[in-house]
C-alpha cells in the first residue's frame, strides 16, 4: 500500500501596509475569496508587513519578474510616485527599495507557485484577476 501526503495549499503573499487603504482593501479581498464553498481554504494568505520585514533583494527581483507586462517597466511600477525621479534602472530601484522599504508601491500580491504578481494600484483589478486565476485552478 502506498501513501501520498496531502497537497499543500498554495500561498498568496501580500506586501502590506496596514496604514494604507488600498493595502487593507487588497488584504480583505484575499481573505474574502480564500474560502471554497465547502469552507476549506483555497490558498493560504501570507501577510508581509514590508516595513517591519523588508523584502530581500531576491524577493524584489522575483516580484519584478512576476509582474505582468506593461508599457512601464516593472521596477518603475514597484516604486511609489514620489520617488520615481530618484531611479533610472533596476539596480538603482533595487538599492533604493532595500534602503527605504517604505518607498515600495503597495499593495503587491504574489502567487509564488504560479510566478505571478499583481500591483493593487490604481485599482485592485489586477489583484482580483490574480486571485480568480488561482481559484479557477483550485476548482480543477
Automatic annotation (TrEMBL):
User: What's a single GO MF annotation on this record?
Assistant: oxidoreductase activity
What family is reported?
Belongs to the FMP46 family.
A GO CC annotation recorded here is:
mitochondrion
Protein name, per record = Arsenate reductase
Which keywords belong to this entry? Mitochondrion, Oxidoreductase, Transit peptide
SUPFAM superfamilies assigned to the protein according to its UniProt record, in alphabetical order: Thioredoxin-like (SSF52833)
Q: Report the locations given in the UniProt record.
A: Mitochondrion
Quote the InterPro entries the UniProt record gives: Arsenate_reductase-like, Fmp46, Thioredoxin-like_sf
Q: What species is given as this protein's source?
A: Apophysomyces ossiformis
Domain of life of the source:
Eukaryota
Amino acid at each position: 500500500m502506498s501513501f501520498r501526503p496531502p497537497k499543500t495549499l498554495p500561498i498568496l503573499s501580500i506586501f502590506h501596509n496596514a496604514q494604507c487603504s488600498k493595502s487593507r482593501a487588497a488584504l480583505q479581498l484575499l481573505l474574502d475569496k480564500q474560502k471554497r464553498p465547502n469552507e476549506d481554504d483555497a490558498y493560504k494568505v501570507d501577510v508581509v508587513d514590508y516595513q517591519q520585514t523588508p523584502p530581500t533583494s531576491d524577493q524584489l527581483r522575483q516580484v519584478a519578474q512576476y509582474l505582468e507586462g506593461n508599457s512601464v517597466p516593472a521596477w518603475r511600477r514597484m516604486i511609489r510616485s514620489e520617488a520615481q525621479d530618484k531611479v533610472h534602472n533596476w539596480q538603482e530601484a533595487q538599492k533604493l527599495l532595500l534602503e527605504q522599504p517604505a518607498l515600495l508601491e503597495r499593495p503587491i500580491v504574489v502567487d509564488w507557485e504560479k510566478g505571478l504578481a499583481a500591483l493593487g494600484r490604481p485599482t485592485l483589478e489586477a489583484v482580483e484577476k490574480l486571485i480568480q486565476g488561482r481559484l479557477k485552478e483550485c476548482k480543477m
